[in-house]
Amino acid sequence: MNGKTACLALISLSLCAQAFGVNLRERKVVVDTEKAELCLESRCYPVLVGKDTPKGTFDLNIVKTNRRGYGGDVMKFKEDKKYLYAIHRVWTLKPEERRMQRIASPNPADRHITHGCINVTDEVYEKLKAYFVVEIR
């Protein structure tokens, strides 16, 4: 999907939502950094987070990237002069970090590893594309 097509799809989604009385800002996911979990659709999923993961409520924006390990896009939620914070697929380019094993761990302490981004499984990432706001606690 190119940028123009993506833009048209987002505009169409927004217009359809307005026509049916849906407030896109209500399409919110919640991330609990202490529990290292993300909740949507009445279900919670384990995530990888870090001590630098920003707290607050943020808009989610899909951003294309050609950087290795991110699968072509990320969901940006905050950016400052130094960093872009995003929700993205589990980054596995450093095998010694064992991120896939860590995200599967039932122990939340095992899932605290990132430098501020939120890592999710491919399945959860695809579900997130229908959401527009993230609340991080």
Walkthrough of the structure:
With 137 residues, the chain is an alpha+beta fold. The chain has a single domain, classed as L,D-transpeptidase catalytic domain-like. The strands form two sheets. It has a five-stranded mixed sheet with strand order 3-2-1-9-4, with no helix packed on it. Strands 5-6-7-8 form a four-stranded mixed sheet. Strand 1 and strand 2 form a beta hairpin. The protein starts with a helix and ends with a strand. The model has no long low-confidence stretch (mean pLDDT 88). InterPro entries: LD_TPept_cat_dom, Transpep_catalytic_dom. It holds the Pfam family YkuD. Pathway: Cell wall biogenesis; peptidoglycan biosynthesis. This is L,D-transpeptidase. It comes from Uruburuella testudinis.
Question: What is the structure about, briefly put?
Answer:
Helices cover 21% and strands 30% of the residues. It is α+β, with helices and mostly antiparallel strands. The protein has one domain (24-136): Beta Barrel (L,D-transpeptidase catalytic domain-like).
CATH class: Mainly Beta
**Count of helical segments?**
3
What's the main sheet like?
A: 5 strands, mixed
End-to-end Cα distance: 33 Å
- Mean pLDDT figure: 88
Structural class designation: alpha+beta
Low-confidence stretches: none
Q: What is the total tally of β strands? A: 9
CATH architecture: Beta Barrel
| CATH-defined superfamily | L,D-transpeptidase catalytic domain-like
* Overall 3D form: globular
Could you spell the SSE succession in H and E letters? HEEEEEEEHEHE
Q: What is the number of domains?
A: 1
Q: Classify the beta-strand content into a percent band.
A: 25-35%
CATH topology: L,D-transpeptidase catalytic domain-like
* Helix fraction bin: 10-25%
Keywords: Cell shape, Cell wall biogenesis/degradation, Peptidoglycan synthesis, Signal, Transferase
Pathway: Cell wall biogenesis; peptidoglycan biosynthesis
Pfam families: YkuD
Signal peptide: 1-19
